[in-house]
Amino acid sequence: MKRVVFIVSLFLLIGCNPKKEQKVEITPKGNFYKQSEMAALMLLMYETNAQNKQLILEGKQPKEFPEEFLKIHTAQLTDSTDRTADFKTFSDFYLQNMKQVFEPTQESLVNKHNTTINSCIACHQTTCVGPIPKIKKLLIP
Ligand code: HEC
User: Fold this and answer.
1) How far apart are the CA of 113 and the centre of ligand 1, in A?
2) pTM of the entire structure?
3) Domain range holding 87?
């Protein structure tokens, strides 16, 4: 008997390329594994900023800048043509703002956090508009 391989071709909203047909293979555990390094990094950035928001609302200072975020410069993208000169500028802008959240400065933590989130949104407006409503939830009103 032939081994049955489940290859499901779906139009999924994966990353930022909903127009491209993505082949999604279902592993024995039933997981999708067609996630790019960049998408995984973005989800980690999302989680960390959600935690920062929580800390700041409790009046606490986030402790340590996560060095793995520097991988934004090298992580493989779903669509490698996204990595342009502008992409680098937006990445630097975002990292620079995020580092401020971990530095003791005169500016309020709420402002620094919101500036960071706005720099996520600034890049997304040029490359990947889908997650913007979700990212906006990270802002502190
Ligand atoms: C320099 C541009 C840039 C910056 C800055 C940026 N993003 Fe992204 N983001 C992208 C791109 C491009 C993708 C698509 C990645 C892929 O599919 O490979 C993405 C994908 C995502 C996704 C979808 C991940 C998924 O499930 O596929 C989320 C959520 C996200 N970003 C949140 C954030 C947050 C939160 C920040 C700031 C903390 C941020 N992004 C900063 C460009 C950026």
Assistant:
1) 17
2) 0.84
3) 37-136
